[in-house]
Design goal:
This protein is of the alpha+beta class and 309 residues long. The chain contains eleven helices and 13 strands. 40% of the residues lie in helices and 22% in strands. Helix 5 crosses helix 6 and helix 6 packs antiparallel against helix 7.
Length: 309
């Protein structure tokens, strides 16, 4: 991974917003702050957040699901779009400890269904970590791959592909084929600083938020109820990763939807802790949550690498 570090640093933050970067850029342009003052503030916030993260209790994924993780011993049948894995149930038990901020006043079952979705995502994307099985899970939920022109062009997959593999991009390739190859590239090439191995297991390292929002406005950060929590999860730089799937919710014609997020603190193999947010929309017709974005809060230059999802 080291050979691609500068490329990934540029690629991982495909969208940087919601933290000090957007507001800080306005401060610089308006003359209210210099670049040096902005960087000083970013360092202060980063250092404060790192100290808070060190107080969060974490556990290895293997301990959470009840056994060490290997290539062959994580078995899970997918039946009618639901996962029967005992491992997912264990992750769900952890996510259920989240501190909940419920601005929409929804009932507990709706909150639990959001947390269950995130437990499945954490399991398939970070614990089981198999490209084909991850795709099967997403498709079983009604999600669908983005159109080729969008994901290969706007989301820079074609240009990244040539950097990763040192060969021309196959213009006739299907999206699933390219996704699985790129996913596996990151999986095989990443070093300890880019490999999640555990997560926060108490309320201080888990957050769930729900609010009503206008989907036409895009992602709106949910007020988490305190300056400390908003800073920990959103600042100084909240960056989005590369999503390959369309939201499995029809956003057309809806003036208001339920938007939710679950934040988890991931622990990487080098000991680094990073807050990661999974956001979702609720389909009002069927009461079904669908993943919309994946975010990482960036402290300094520690990106954690690009997560293909």
């Amino acid at each position: 991974m080291q050979g691609f570090s500068s490329r990934l640093r540029l690629g991982v933050i495909l969208s940087v917003s919601l933290g000090l970067v957007g507001y800080g850029a306005w401060l610089v342009r308006s003359g209210h702050a210099s670049i040096d003052e902005l960087r000083k503030e970013e360092r202060r916030v980063s250092n404060t957040n790192r100290k808070i993260l060190q107080t969060i209790e974490t556990a290895p994924f293997g301990m959470i699901i009840g056994h060490e993780i290997s290539e062959s011993d994580v078995e899970f049948p997918i039946v009618n779009g639901s996962n029967a894995s005992a491992g997912i149930a264990q992750v769900d038990e952890v996510v259920n400890r989240s501190f909940v901020v419920n601005h929409a006043g929804v009932d507990d079952p709706l909150i639990r269904s959001l947390e269950r979705l995130v437990a499945e995502f954490v399991y398939f994307r970070f614990i089981h970590d198999d490209a084909s099985d991850y795709v099967a899970w997403r498709l079983s939920r009604g999600d669908r791959f983005k159109e080729k022109d969008l994901i290969f062009g706007k989301w820079l997959v074609a240009s990244d592909y040539e950097v990763y593999f040192g060969e021309p991009f196959p213009e006739d390739a299907g999206v699933r084929e390219v996704f699985e190859r790129v996913y596996n590239f990151h999986r095989e090439e990443r070093d300890d600083g880019h490999r999640p191995v555990g997560m926060g297991v108490d309320e201080s390292g888990l957050i769930t938020g729900i609010q009503r929002m206008n989907p036409a406005l895009g992602f709106e950060r949910i007020d988490l109820g305190s300056e400390e929590l908003n800073t920990l999860w959103y600042e100084p730089n909240l960056g989005s990763h590369r999503g390959w799937f369309e939201v499995g919710v029809d956003l057309a014609g809806d003036d208001e939807l339920l938007s939710g997020l679950v934040g988890v603190v991931l622990e990487y193999a080098d000991g680094t802790l990073r807050p990661v947010i999974i956001s979702a929309y609720l389909d009002p017709k069927i009461g079904h949550w669908s993943i919309s974005m994946l975010w990482t809060n960036i402290y300094g230059d520690t990106t954690g690498g690009l997560i293909e999802y």
